[in-house]
Design a protein that fits this description.
This protein has two helices and two strands. It is α+β, with helices and mostly antiparallel strands. The model has no long low-confidence stretch (mean pLDDT about 85).
């Protein structure tokens, strides 16, 4: 391992077989890291779009229980994705802080 290019484990924004966590080792510049960046950007964008849709639905008194249930399921998925991204990015900051000591 080169000291110029430290290897870090990054939590990826998708699960592996059987729902297990996936990680990539590297300096963050490889193809898997770039794909993870693209997936995270898409997940954050979908979450923001869903939030706007949720606000509109909650203001509409004609929305059915089934529609609200479906919305709740999608919001749960979006929150799971955002929390995974936050965990991944937070871990990266913790490692970077350790490297600076």
């Amino acid at each position: 391992m080169s000291l110029q290019h430290p290897q870090h484990a990054r939590l990826l924004p998708w699960s592996g077989p059987e729902g297990k966590r996936c990680y990539v080792l590297g300096d963050g510049s490889g193809p898997v890291s770039r794909l993870a960046d693209e997936v995270e950007a898409a997940q954050l964008g979908m979450g923001a779009e869903l939030l706007g849709h949720a606000r509109a639905m909650l203001n509409d008194r004609r929305v059915s229980n089934g529609e609200l249930r479906f919305l709740g399921e999608r919001l749960t998925e979006a929150l799971r994705d955002v929390l995974r991204i936050a965990e991944s990015r937070g871990a990266g900051r913790a490692v970077a802080a350790e490297d600076q000591k």
